[in-house]
């Protein structure tokens, strides 16, 4: 029987590996999207929690499996589902089909759904494929940097590659979050929808930009891991030979902390550690430049946050917010350490360029990337699929 959306809340199952758990800090963006959609849909969130055989389980990477018990994030209840992940990429999801009955039993206990939204191709999308084949439930997939990285590394003769293709090929819609991923999916024969993340209205700061600065504060926020390239910022600061007084504030933590602290000896660099949202706002309002030459980013919400607080932003080409901002007019994008260093030095010295970029990126973010705008795109997409699938009346 077709249902009228005006009097019925469709039930949506989020399947998301990449969320914060009681044992692991992680990006909250998937949880945020789920929470903001609860005004329109009845949302549940299932978390595929990987565990690995001994002795691989001793590695730090595999110590973050969620407990068996459910937990809550705000008003959203999160249901963990444990599955066995094997070591090495070619074998990693080989055991996943063995958990089909367990997964169906878990879902049957928590409800009947009209649509699933998977937030990785594997394992999340494969679990959504099980629901489609078992109950004819349509699903969509958010494709992330890890998915694209794995696909590019795999041989098309491998079982896992065929599994990726099977999951992608049965989805009703594919979401990607930057232009590079959009072009990659097109190159392997799949259409995708480019969609950003969002900013809440209270995050914006229409601060006054001084026409000339003698002292420039650079900020960066990120995990201290190699792909974030925070050492590039420190090295570029050390190589600066201009007349401005320059300081750097770094928010975050991670395995490379001691190495980064040693590299910054003798420079005006402050390590802030992990900081809460209110301090992030103050940091970004106080800085004039936000620099994060990170690679393999799915989106990078922090770039939007920096733009919303009127920073001149430097990011990496072909990753993160690439495709959402006009290069050279709203954000500076680089493709190597040398181009990053040159862009950073130019942004320190060139007050007019820095302020122009900051104003333009601020307006782009305010006009296009508020959460209300992004959530409306998801809402309309979900409803379109449900109507086309005959679940809702047109």
Question: Mind explaining what this structure looks like?
Answer:
With 394 residues, the chain is an alpha/beta fold. 37% of the residues lie in helices and 18% in strands. The protein has 13 helices and 14 strands. It has helices at residues 29-37, 100-110, 121-135, 145-153, 159-169, 179-187, 230-238, 257-263, 277-286, 301-308, 337-349, 351-368, 371-388; strands at 11-15, 42-51, 71-73, 76-84, 115-118, 139-142, 173-176, 193-194, 215-221, 245-251, 269-273, 289-291, 312-316, 332-334. The strands form 2 sheets. Strands 3-4-2-1-5-6-7-8 form an 8-stranded mixed β-sheet, with helices on both faces. A 6-stranded parallel β-sheet has the order 11-10-9-12-13-14, sandwiched between helices. Strand 7, helix 6 and strand 8 (193-194) form a beta-alpha-beta unit. Helix 7 packs across helix 11. The longest helix is centred in the C-terminal third of the chain and has 18 residues, at 351-368. The model has no long low-confidence stretch (mean pLDDT 93).
Topology:
Elements: E1 11-15, H1 29-37, E2 42-51, E3 71-73, E4 76-84, H2 100-110, E5 115-118, H3 121-135, E6 139-142, H4 145-153, H5 159-169, E7 173-176, H6 179-187, E8 193-194, E9 215-221, H7 230-238, E10 245-251, H8 257-263, E11 269-273, H9 277-286, E12 289-291, H10 301-308, E13 312-316, E14 332-334, H11 337-349, H12 351-368, H13 371-388
Helix pairs in contact: 3-5, 7-11
């Amino acid at each position: 029987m077709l249902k009228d959306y005006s009097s019925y809340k469709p039930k949506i199952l989020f399947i998301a590996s990449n969320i914060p758990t009681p044992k692991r800090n992680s990006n909250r963006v998937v949880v945020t999207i789920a929470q903001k959609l609860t005004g329109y849909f009845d949302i549940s969130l299932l978390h595929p929690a990987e565990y690995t055989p001994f002795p691989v389980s001793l590695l730090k990477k595999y110590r973050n499996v969620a407990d068996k018990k459910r937990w809550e994030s705000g008003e959203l209840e999160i249901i963990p589902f444990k599955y066995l992940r094997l070591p090495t990429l070619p074998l990693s999801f080989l055991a996943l089909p063995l958990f089909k009955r367990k997964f169906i039993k878990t879902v049957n206990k928590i409800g009947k759904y009209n649509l699933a939204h998977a937030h990785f191709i594997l394992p999340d999308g494969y679990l959504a494929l099980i629901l489609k084949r078992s109950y004819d439930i349509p699903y969509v997939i958010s494709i992330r940097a890890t998915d694209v990285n794995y696909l590019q590394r795999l041989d098309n003769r491998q079982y896992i590659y065929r599994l990726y293709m099977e999951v992608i090929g049965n989805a009703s819609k594919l979401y990607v979050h930057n232009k590079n991923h959009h072009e990659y999916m097109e190159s392997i024969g799949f259409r995708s929808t480019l969609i950003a993340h969002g900013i809440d209205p209270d995050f914006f700061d229409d601060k006054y930009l001084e026409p000339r600065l003698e002292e420039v504060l650079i900020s960066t926020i990120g995990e201290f891991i190699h792909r974030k390239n925070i050492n590039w910022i420190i090295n570029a600061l050390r190589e600066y030979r201009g007349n401005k007084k320059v300081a750097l504030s770094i928010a975050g933590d991670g395995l490379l902390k001691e190495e980064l602290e040693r590299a910054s000896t003798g420079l005006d660099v402050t390590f802030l550690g992990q900081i809460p949202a209110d301090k992030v706002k103050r940091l970004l309002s106080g800085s004039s430049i936000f620099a994060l030459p990170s690679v393999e980013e799915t989106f990078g919400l922090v770039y939007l946050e920096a733009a919303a607080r009127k920073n001149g932003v430097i990011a990496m080409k072909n990753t993160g917010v690439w495709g959402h901002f006009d290069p050279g007019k709203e954000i500076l994008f680089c493709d190597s350490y040398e181009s990053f260093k040159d862009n950073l030095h130019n942004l320190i010295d060139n007050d007019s360029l820095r302020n122009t970029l900051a104003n333009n990126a601020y307006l782009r973010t305010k006009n296009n990337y508020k959460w209300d705008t992004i959530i409306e795109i998801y809402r309309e997409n979900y409803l379109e699929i449900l109507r086309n699938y005959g679940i809702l009346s047109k």
